[in-house]
Amino acid sequence: MITRMSSLFLRTLRDDPADAEVPSHKLLVRAGYVRRTAPGVYSWLPLGLRVLRNVEKVVREEMGAIGAQEISLPALLPREPYETTGRWTEYGDALFRLKDRKGQDYLLGPTHEELFTSLVKGEYSSYKDFPVTLFQIQTKYRDEERPRAGILRGREFIMKDSYSFTMDDEGLEEAYQAHRRAYQAIFDRLGVEYAICAATSGAMGGSASEEFLAISPNGEDTFVRATDGDYAANVEAVVTPHPDPRPVEGLPEAVVYRTPDAPTMDTLVAWARSEGITVDGRPVELTDTLKCLLVKVTEPGGEPELTGVLLPGDREADMKRLEASLEPATVELAEDKDFEANPFLAKGYVGPKGLADNGVRVLADPRVVTGTSWITGADRKNHHVVNMVAGRDFTPDAYIEAATVREGDAAPAGMGTLTLERGIEIGHIFQLGRKYTEAFDMQILDVNGKRSVPTMGSYGLGVSRLIAVLAEQMHDEKGLRWPAEVAPYDVHVVIANKDAAAGEAAGALVDRLSEAGLEVLYDDRPKVSPGVKFKDAELLGVPLVFIVGRGFADGTVELRDRMTGDADNIAYDDAVSTALGRTGK
Amino acid sequence: MITRMSSLFLRTLRDDPADAEVPSHKLLVRAGYVRRTAPGVYSWLPLGLRVLRNVEKVVREEMGAIGAQEISLPALLPREPYETTGRWTEYGDALFRLKDRKGQDYLLGPTHEELFTSLVKGEYSSYKDFPVTLFQIQTKYRDEERPRAGILRGREFIMKDSYSFTMDDEGLEEAYQAHRRAYQAIFDRLGVEYAICAATSGAMGGSASEEFLAISPNGEDTFVRATDGDYAANVEAVVTPHPDPRPVEGLPEAVVYRTPDAPTMDTLVAWARSEGITVDGRPVELTDTLKCLLVKVTEPGGEPELTGVLLPGDREADMKRLEASLEPATVELAEDKDFEANPFLAKGYVGPKGLADNGVRVLADPRVVTGTSWITGADRKNHHVVNMVAGRDFTPDAYIEAATVREGDAAPAGMGTLTLERGIEIGHIFQLGRKYTEAFDMQILDVNGKRSVPTMGSYGLGVSRLIAVLAEQMHDEKGLRWPAEVAPYDVHVVIANKDAAAGEAAGALVDRLSEAGLEVLYDDRPKVSPGVKFKDAELLGVPLVFIVGRGFADGTVELRDRMTGDADNIAYDDAVSTALGRTGK
């Protein structure tokens, strides 16, 4: 297959588009792979579409390898199934909603759990039909608040979503692990650098989930990795190690002090040091103070419940982590009116004892372990209490993840410390359990003839986003660099000499490369200078570039490897075999 | 490639779905190819998706063969470009409209002329870049008033749309003819029986267009074909032959009669016969009377203009034909208030002379040619005029197509008579000219360095609809029958014997067929009777079916040809070579 650049629908741009911030966005637009049609809505031009199809092919092959069967559901979906699970409203503004000419409600599918569940329910009724795993590669719609970075976070995008239905939890675990392996195979084939991160399930529901994050400084997601072990997690899912409890015997008594000039944690430490107060025989640190955050927690269908959250004074609260810990409840900060309604709350001086004495639930950071001593609010304006010992003077109702995660924090299971990194979500796999199958009352006759509700897994992979990720991870300052598996062409041939013989030789080379089964991009543009052609070749990023130029008089052509930057002069007659060897085709 | 039916996501149905009327709808649902998700919105299950991909492949190959380049535009489109051409409102209720979270207007693309025009305008500026033809195979949305017949007329469907941009009309003609040939190649490869019909351009605009109609009694479109020549046209586009003018010399004078009991054309004929009035020396027929229909014609942006339309008395007016003749003007029938406002109009007795005398434009059917004599209204209540001669007593301002077309009408250019047939639109090609390129002010520097507006063609082909058409044209009473080019599998192998040796032999045959490059559907379901398997094979419609059954003891297998119904016993060892020969692979 040969594409001639003289007639290819392509215009490369020398300048970055004004709205582009990250390299993948700049380069995919400059190289003519995509064009913006509306905010977060892109068109795929010939080269971009070829890469997209190649990525789809890899995904399709690896999904087929685990026995997943391809189908294709609509994007225009009726409201009812999403009403059944509550997601019609839960999705909020991220859902594109519309009405048809009869006034019926529709949505543009953001993910298809509801539809796959009701589809399988409609077809199958016996355990003999299970397990079944279905997938589609399909256009999805999410009305992102901040569509950004070109196709990295679009409002119309292409996703591979698959759904497994199994009769029991072991089946779900198998289907989940199969997807995990398939995702690894896909990302490995593409050469993506990624981490598999423990994740929270969020609005999707279910028990376990992991995210595949492509490592990138331009990623929107922060995740952690352990320095000494195979552990990665997104920030919401990080588990803070619980220190061992310590004995409370022999610890000094709690003492209340008047602290009129200590409204903040820092001023509290300064006050304690000026007073000569010590903890474990050393001067007080910020880590010896205890914050008591007041929030309201609302379980689904319930009333807001006032709750205290205890955090070491050197940590901020991370509301996303707190919300993830309390999912599916929602969390909001207490307001002035809550303090007014509860006069026992001394604003700025709230402590765990006053909360417990007044029946308010107290949740604590895992570091607030039995036997630790704290300086905290004394439940009285301008007063703090010193030597407040967990497990003696107060006992949290439960432990919770609510503190910010920091580089250098201890990793779980003794795997050293945590490093913070940024990534781009390219896959997310969920063990959903029975949330959706129960919502749709999917009853299947099991091996004993009894009705049983199947378990379900849901597995997403960002197909169009992967192309941005590849551009992001593999580009250099000159342009794109595609891995052979998904490159728009195998070989790029450039005529770099006006000599008619060179042109003929290039044409013959192109024909031979194509006949050998390679896909060839042929820069045959007659009035374009070699310099511009070279720059375009670098920008477009085809892995192998043959230059038919001055050297041709000596029977050689130049072969440039776009990924490594290496350039070799090789005999014209060896060009095809060399190309075949390099591409592995 | 082997698909085992024991694990295939497939449930065939014995009964027709309740909402299905046409065979393709019934069979595609019963055979588990598609499932309804919402009115006019369907899901593609594994077998259906395979046929869809095969059809897409044929379309892609033939579009590539004429140099069209594939790209992919979004389905979610901003309002502005459609506002530029007026189609945001012109489309009426057929357009799915929605708002994003910021309140911006969007639509789901029904066809992409606007987007392709602005895309090409954004990339190209010189004649050197032209001609260019772009296509996409993409999901389209139209909120049909009556979605029907499953995927035959859906609200979400897959279309190939392409757009050519050329510097002049000759270029447009070339691009148009190339598409015409590509469409013929596609439909011929699929074995579709179709007619290429002269068509009107309708709301799309432009000068010339043709429709490709698949011949089917369940088609929604009526078209005509000539008995003695290569002429077909949809009813709106039928051209009525103009008879030669005749001499007016020597024809009897026009005479006004009082006709109190002749309010209809039939009673008028009865009156004339009772009076002994003759035309050309023979008794009066209905075809000698002349209707004078009063309508109001509104040019875009103009005021309604009163207009008379003259039709032979044996013909009804076909308002769609009249509107197509007057496109882009709209047409409505005159109302009582129009008669009141124009007292010279004698309702029921309007004639061409009164109209002309009062400055009303008169349009006439081509049969109202110079030298023909008519009995028509005398512009006075209860009076008609006899021997009213066209070209002597009145002269139409223009000729127009407004009469119903009937089986047996004369075909143009002496090609015999017309037959009326029904068809399904599977393609429509348009010479748009400069309607869209002018709307977007697309200025390209021509060879002389002058700014020039390119010409454009637009070419649609119903990809998902084609699958319904193939089912409609090729099924038999037992089920679907696919042409080899797009069948979901090349071969279907059925184990029809519980003998373990037959099972092993079938498995080995399946492996060898797959190794030979054939795609094999393998009915290995252990607890399903041979009778059910045979019925399913007939329903599913794979072209070649191997039955490994009783005969296997003698070393033979049965090979059934689904299209012809032929069955042969062939040697097991010859099965692969026979299959390869039959499929042509």
Automatic annotation (TrEMBL), chains A, B:
PROSITE patterns on file: AA_TRNA_LIGASE_II
GO molecular function, one term: proline-tRNA ligase activity
InterPro entries named in the record: aa-tRNA-synt_IIb, aa-tRNA-synth_II, aa-tRNA-synth_II/BPL/LPL, Anticodon-bd, Anticodon-bd_dom_sf, Pro-tRNA-ligase_IIa, Pro-tRNA-synth_IIa_bac-type, Pro-tRNA-Synthase_IIa_type1
Enzyme Commission designation: 6.1.1.15
Localization annotation: Cytoplasm
Main localization category: cytoplasm
Superkingdom classification of source: Bacteria
The reaction(s) this protein catalyses: tRNA(Pro) + L-proline + ATP = L-prolyl-tRNA(Pro) + AMP + diphosphate
Domain annotation Aminoacyl-transfer RNA synthetases class-II family profile: ranges: 35-483
Claim: Cytoplasm is one of the keywords in the record: yes
Swiss-Prot/TrEMBL keywords: Aminoacyl-tRNA synthetase, ATP-binding, Cytoplasm, Ligase, Nucleotide-binding, Protein biosynthesis
Gene Ontology cellular component terms for the protein in this record: cytosol
Keyword Disulfide bond attributed: no
Top-level class of the enzyme under EC nomenclature: ligase
Record-level GO BP terms: prolyl-tRNA aminoacylation
Subunit structure: Homodimer.
Biological role: Catalyzes the attachment of proline to tRNA(Pro) in a two-step reaction: proline is first activated by ATP to form Pro-AMP and then transferred to the acceptor end of tRNA(Pro). As ProRS can inadvertently accommodate and process non-cognate amino acids such as alanine and cysteine, to avoid such errors it has two additional distinct editing activities against alanine. One activity is designated as 'pretransfer' editing and involves the tRNA(Pro)-independent hydrolysis of activated Ala-AMP.
Similarity-based family: Belongs to the class-II aminoacyl-tRNA synthetase family. ProS type 1 subfamily.
Domain notes: Consists of three domains: the N-terminal catalytic domain, the editing domain and the C-terminal anticodon-binding domain.
NCBIfam families: PRK09194.1, proS_fam_II
Name of the molecule in the record: Proline--tRNA ligase
Organism: Corynebacterium kalidii
Gene: proS
